[in-house]
Design a protein that fits this description.
Layout (H helix, E strand, L loop, with lengths): L5 H13 L3 H9 L18 E7 L3 E11 L2 E9 L15 H19 L1 H8 L4 E7 L9 H14 L1 E4 L2 H12 L5 H4 L5 E2 L3 H6 L2 H9 L3
Parallel strand pairs: 1-6, 3-4, 4-5
Antiparallel strand pairs: 1-2, 2-3
């Protein structure tokens, strides 16, 4: 079974932060799925994670995976901005980086609302989407105003905004409790977009939902 080089992962994460490089961060996450641990509502029995999933002519999410819930398939779509993107201006107005990330996800929401057949083509069957935006540092979201603003967006736009602190906590948790990550070791790296359709076509859980789903 493949295991990760934690020392290298930690150093690469620090480098992505120091260079404020979205590309280096995404590259790191592709080969170290355990760094996405904090984003999973269910830590055990996880499904494969796919990167750079395309839909429509110009739309793409950074990562996607299935939560095979008993009440239907929930697909998690993730957008990641630069690690040290500012989130608010001095006048408490949202920064362009934050608005850009939100508008990116809203474009996904609108596209799938207007193109239900595309959901079936890309994901097989969808009961609901869970949208996650990762932007800014943990410290950037700690003020009372930022916390309230984030909670409001999550409620009104159905966009879960998280900080890059999720990756730091994953590293910390893996060092303390490595046995909790056994499910991620079954899928240590993410898979390309080209393998997504073959995955859900050959997963028995999806057969039932594909047969009864109209979306």
């Amino acid at each position: 079974m493949i295991e990760w080089d934690l020392s290298k992962a930690e150093n690469d994460l620090k480098q992505a932060y120091s260079e404020n490089s979205e590309l280096k961060l995404l590259t790191l996450l592709k080969s170290n799925t355990f760094l996405l641990y904090e984003l999973f509502t269910r830590k055990h029995g996880i499904q494969p994670i796919f990167h750079e999933v395309n839909f429509g002519a110009r739309l793409r999410c950074d990562f996607a995976w299935l939560n095979d819930n008993s009440d239907g398939p929930e697909w998690v779509l993730v957008e990641i901005e630069k690690p040290y993107s500012s989130v608010f201006k001095r006048n408490n107005m949202p920064s362009c980086h934050l608005l850009q990330g939100i508008e990116q996800i809203r474009s996904w929401q609108m596209y799938f609302d207007e193109n239900p057949l595309e959901k079936r083509r890309v994901f097989g069957a969808v009961s609901r989407f869970r949208y996650i935006l990762i932007v800014g540092t943990l410290e950037a979201w700690q003020s009372s105003y930022a916390s309230k603003w984030r909670a409001y967006i999550n409620k009104t736009l159905n966009i879960e905004i998280r900080s890059c602190g999720v990756f730091d906590r994953a590293l910390e948790n893996y060092n303390k409790h490595p046995n909790e990550f056994w499910s991620f070791l079954e899928h240590p790296a993410t898979y390309g977009d080209a393998k997504l359709k073959g995955y859900w076509e050959n997963y028995g859980y999806m057969d039932h939902w594909r047969s009864i789903s109209n979306t």
